[in-house]
Structure formats: structure tokens, C-alpha cells
Design a protein that fits this description.
single chain, mainly beta, eight-stranded antiparallel β-barrel, 1 helix, 8% helix, globular
Length: 178
């Protein structure tokens, strides 16, 4: 759903997120202690809450998802005990001769846990873009049902951090509690 104008920012975010990723290990989905164990499909207690990370190229992105001019972004997941999930992806890119281009993707849905895999199935969402070079790409759009596909993420809890690996690269990273 991301437009061409935000492709550079998405590429920067994915590239920067890549260095945050750790290789797949044998402990994915296991964590430590009984708080991470649950029946198939139930949300482990240790995952409940808000998780996020920010990356920047150039200037700083703070923990509240505000980026100064430069390129960067932030991703957050909020997991409810019942599996209700809120996803946010903020991207910002400074384009020479154009200025700052920003986008915000918000999705809500349900997450099921299947061993070392989280399956997030969005049911609603919006995409907002501010683009000084392409005013036709500035606006707010609702995702259509065909745009809301399930996403499978490998997960691991370790030392208070949540590591997610997204086969598509968009949500991969090391998340801290917010």
C-alpha cells in the first residue's frame, strides 16, 4: 500500500532495522519462565503490552515516534491479553529538493500465538501520508479488505526485549517495552 514517494523511507527503515535483527535461534517463542508459556493460540502474559523501536538515519527519532528532519521511523505493537493487537508504522524521509515526506500506517486486528510464531491478522487500518513533492499522495486512506493480509512473525523474548523476524522485513527488529 505504500506509495512510491515513501519507498526511499521504507527502504531506509528496512535497511536500518536489518542491523537490529539477530539471527534465528533455537529459543524463539520460548522466552524464560512460566509467564511466557501458554496454550496454543493464547497470548503469553509476557507479551501483553506495548512494544516498539525507532531507527534513524541522520537526525534522531525519539521514543514517542517523533523524528527530526532526516530519515527514520518507528514501529510499535500493542498486544492485549485477549489477542487484540494495535500496529503502528511511522516513516519519515528527507528528500533533496522535496522536503520531508511522512507516512503513518495504523492497523488493528487479532494476534494468535503458534509456538515460536505470532500471526497478526489485521481487520481494519488506515494509511496517512504528507508529501510536499506529490500533493496527490497526501491524504488519509482506509485499507480495503484485500490489503489486510495476515502476517506471520517469528518471536523471542530475551532480557526484557522482544525480537521479531518478519519474512517481508517490514516489522523485523528488537523491540523494547513502552
Amino acid at each position: 500500500m505504500l506509495r512510491d514517494s515513501s519507498h526511499a523511507c521504507r527502504a531506509a527503515l528496512v535497511g536500518l532495522a536489518g542491523w537490529l535483527m539477530l539471527g534465528a535461534g533455537t529459543a524463539y517463542g520460548q522466552g524464560k519462565g512460566p509467564a511466557t508459556r501458554s496454550r496454543l493460540g493464547a497470548m503469553p502474559v509476557a507479551l501483553v503490552g506495548k512494544w516498539g523501536f525507532a531507527v534513524a538515519n541522520g537526525n534522531y527519532c525519539d521514543t514517542s515516534s517523533h523524528c527530526e528532519p532526516g530519515s527514520g521511523g518507528s514501529i510499535s505493537f500493542t498486544f492485549g491479553a485477549d489477542g487484540h493487537t494495535y500496529f503502528a508504522l511511522f516513516q519519515s524521509s528527507l528528500v533533496d529538493g522535496c522536503g520531508q515526506i511522512r507516512s503513518l500506517t495504523l492497523k488493528t486486528g487479532k494476534t494468535l500465538v503458534r509456538g515460536s510464531t505470532l500471526v497478526f491478522t489485521p481487520t481494519a487500518g488506515t494509511y496517512k501520508s504528507v508529501n510536499g513533492c506529490r500533493p496527490d499522495l497526501t491524504g488519509l486512506w482506509k485499507f480495503k479488505p484485500g490489503d489486510l493480509k495476515p502476517v506471520s512473525l517469528r518471536w523471542q523474548l530475551e532480557a526484557g526485549q522482544l525480537r521479531l523476524i518478519d519474512p517481508n522485513g517490514e516489522a523485523s527488529g528488537v523491540y523494547d517495552r513502552r
